[in-house]
Design a protein that fits this description.
1 helix; alpha+beta
Length: 85
Amino acid sequence: MGRRRRKIIRKTPKPPPSVFICPLCGAQAVSVTHEPEAEVATVSCANCKVSAQVKWYPAYTNVDAYSEWYDIVTKGTPEAETGES
């Protein structure tokens, strides 16, 4: 008698998020836009209109640009532009 074969279950990894949570308004509305040949990426919140440009390195992903933007916004540096008129 042989033993039973086990069913192989493959787990697919989750892709990184493309829309992030804003630290100021709490809405899930922050997006990262980057042109393929540009050296900067624009990170902005669609809800409260806070945006900033962060330096883009070749090894960066959207999450890396968001984390730099998060640091800029939470420290309150003047680099972050508010969309209020």
